[in-house]
């Protein structure tokens, strides 16, 4: 029976410590969340520089929705290709230093579109084995063959390039969503010069938070880059930065864009306000970097193995059950953290993923690391 199969699979998830049952969050201000009437310090938000709660942006968004209405009511390919969206895309391309840009309703859809549409049997996608699920799904949906290389290993990538059966396209992230580390971008650029391949770099966790003016860290090496509005940019949706020819191609052939309702005009107007906020956020970026270093030190001083070079830190735990148990206990002690378990990370390598925002206080970090240390006991 169909229902029996669903129940059985859910029971196996529970047995393996993989069951997901996200708590209902009633309120949040970026630094904290309220769950079941209790206020917890939130180490599981991607609002890295606090823009998601910015008064200026909230006002810009509400004015934009009042002026332009609440829906585009159509696909981009029908009557949803509004001038303000095209204008905002040009502004994004200029700001991030690419020829063109294309907005998507979500980063998930953007990755599906890029990887399944642009590349075909003449190419071979060589992907870092830790790339996001949306990238993996995009490759699976497309017709280009794909092969993984060891996480951040440029020697393994070079081996794959030499053995590629089509024109290689390297697919990676600039700041990995779970590990919080970055590929050796200078080495990747050197390999690119030597072998002349194309690259797709997901900068979802870097734009707004890293690089000069929040422009990310991979411009020197990326041919196509993906940014999400829903993280440091404090909004929702996504943008892809790319050559104009690729944009034209995606508008003609990318199902995840053609057969979906466009983001509303008010989104594009708000996205322009986001850009000016991001440009002026040097102080928040400096604070975020400071807090990230501070939490890394606090945790490593207490003997934890911590991976992560910026505002995403992965505390290595190992067993799924142990990680899940710890997160539950942290919750009881007033801290909201997220455990990444299989299939998000490999089996038996569960982590507690911590993400910081510029709004955290030093006391938040000290309280958290003391509590985790006590709980590990
Ligand atoms: C690296 C990466 N790429 C893409 C996405 C998808 O973006 P979105 O949330 O806008 O769908 C995410 C997370 O959500 C991500 O972490």
Automatic annotation (TrEMBL):
Residues of the Aminotransferase class I/classII large domain: 39-368
The protein's annotated pathway: Cofactor biosynthesis; biotin biosynthesis
Xref: Pfam families: Aminotran_1_2 (PF00155)
InterPro entries: Aminotrans_II_pyridoxalP_BS, Aminotransferase_I/II_large, AON_synthase_class-II, PyrdxlP-dep_Trfase, PyrdxlP-dep_Trfase_major, PyrdxlP-dep_Trfase_small
Cofactor(s) it depends on: pyridoxal 5'-phosphate
Catalytic activity: 6-carboxyhexanoyl-[ACP] + L-alanine + H(+) = (8S)-8-amino-7-oxononanoate + holo-[ACP] + CO2
Enzyme Commission code(s) on record: 2.3.1.47
Ranges that cross the membrane: none
PROSITE patterns linked: AA_TRANSFER_CLASS_2
Quaternary structure annotation from Swiss-Prot or TrEMBL: Homodimer.
Protein name per its UniProtKB record: 8-amino-7-oxononanoate synthase
């Amino acid at each position: 029976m169909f229902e029996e199969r669903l129940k059985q699979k859910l029971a196996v998830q529970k047995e393996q410590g993989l069951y997901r049952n996200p708590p209902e969050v009633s309120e949040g201000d970026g630094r904290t969340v309220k769950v079941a009437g209790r206020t917890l310090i939130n180490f599981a938000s991607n609002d890295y520089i606090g823009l998601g709660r910015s008064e200026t942006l909230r006002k810009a968004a509400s004015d934009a929705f009042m002026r332009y209405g609440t829906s585009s009511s159509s696909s981009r390919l029908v009557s949803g290709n509004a001038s303000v969206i095209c204008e905002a895309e040009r502004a994004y391309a200029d700001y991030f230093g690419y020829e063109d840009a294309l907005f998507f309703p979500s980063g998930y859809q953007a990755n599906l579109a890029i990887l399944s549409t642009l590349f075909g049997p003449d190419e071979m996608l060589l992907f870092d084995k830790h790339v996001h699920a949306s990238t993996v799904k995009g490759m699976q949906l497309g017709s280009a063959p794909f092969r993984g290389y060891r996480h951040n290993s440029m020697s393994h990538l070079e081996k794959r390039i030499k053995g590629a059966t089509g024109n290689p396209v390297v697919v990676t992230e600039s700041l990995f969503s779970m590990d919080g580390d970055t590929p050796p971008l200078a080495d990747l650029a050197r390999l690119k010069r030597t072998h002349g391949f194309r690259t797709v770099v997901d900068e979802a966790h870097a734009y707004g938070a890293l690089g000069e003016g929040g422009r990310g860290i991979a411009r020197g090496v990326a041919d196509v880059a993906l940014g999400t509005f829903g993280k440091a940019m404090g909004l929702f949706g996504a943008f892809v930065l790319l050559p104009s020819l690729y944009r034209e191609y995606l508008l003609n052939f990318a199902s995840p864009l053609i057969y979906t309702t466009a983001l509303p005009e008010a989104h594009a107007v708000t996205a322009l306000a986001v850009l000016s906020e991001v440009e002026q956020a040097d102080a928040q970026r400096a604070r975020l970097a400071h807090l990230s270093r501070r939490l890394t030190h606090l945790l490593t001083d207490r003997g934890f193995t911590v991976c992560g070079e910026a505002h995403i830190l992965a505390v290595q735990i190992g067993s799924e059950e142990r990680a899940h148990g710890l997160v539950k206990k942290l919750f009881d002690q007033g801290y909201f953290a997220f455990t990444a378990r299989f299939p998000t990370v490999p089996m038996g390598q569960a982590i507690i993923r911590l993400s910081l925002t510029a709004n955290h206080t030093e006391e938040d970090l000290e309280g958290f690391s003391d509590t985790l240390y006590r709980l590990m006991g």
